[in-house]
Structure formats: structure tokens, C-alpha cells
Amino acid sequence: MKIVGPEYIELAFRFAHEADPDALLFINDYNTYEPAKRQAIYDLVQELLAKNVLIHCIGMQMRTNIDYPLVYEVRRLYGYSPL
Predict the structure, then answer these.
(1) What is the distance between the alpha carbons of residues 28 and 32, in angstroms, rounded to a whole number?
(2) pTM for this structure?
(3) What is the pLDDT of residues 32-72, one digit of tens each?
(4) Residues with Cβ < 8 Å from 56, sequence gap 6 or more?
(5) If you placed Cys at 4, which of 8, 17, 46, 53 could pair as Cys (CB 3.0 to 4.6 Å)?
(6) What is the predicted pLDDT for the residue at 35?
(7) Strands (DSSP E) found in the chain
(8) pLDDT digits (tens, 9 = 90+) for 8-18
(9) Contacts of 38 (CB under 8 A, 6+ apart)
């Protein structure tokens, strides 16, 4: 049995491009307003691009409810002045 290690994301992008060279390749994650998560995505994309992995777009989702995330956190992220 073979197990794919940490390079699985790189391989997924490479295999997807090989399977369909015309496909647009997106990396997508949620809660990207969180600084640590946003930085991790940025670092990952930079690493993949340095390895000549083709990525066309970064998708960012935000899951919300009445209590989370706090309004000021979202406003700070997107450059709105404080309430």
C-alpha cells in the first residue's frame, strides 16, 4: 500500500492539469479572514508556484453565524473603519 504524504496538494494540481490542460485550477478554503489561516494559504501557494505548479485562482470563503466572526474582525480585514 502506498500513501501520499504532504505533497498530495501539489500532486493533485499536477494530475488535474495533466488530465485536462484547459481546466482552470483553483485552491479554495474557508475562514480566510483568520490571519494565521490566510498566511498558511499564502505560504502554500507561494511554495507551489515556486515548484511551477499551475494555479489560476485562490478562492476564499467565509462561514458566518450570528456570533462568529465578530463584525469588527471582518471590517478590519476588508479595510472598513471601526464601528
Answers:
(1) 9
(2) 0.74
(3) 878 898 899 999 999 999 999 999 999 888 777 778 777 77
(4) 24, 25, 26
(5) 8
(6) 83
(7) 26-30, 57-61
(8) 999 999 999 99
(9) 32
Q: Per this entry, what is the length of the chain?
A: 83
Phi, psi torsion values for 27, nearest 5 degrees: -110, 135
Residue 10 C-alpha cell reads as 501539489
Q: Which residue has the cell 488535474?
A: 16
- Adjacent-strand bridge partners of 28: 59
Residue 51's nearest CA partner among 18, 5, 9 is: 9
57, β-bridge pairs:
26
User: Which set of grid coordinates corresponds to residue 15?
Assistant: 494530475
Please give the radius of gyration of the chain, using alpha carbons only, rounded to the nearest integer: 16
Largest CA distance in the chain: 56
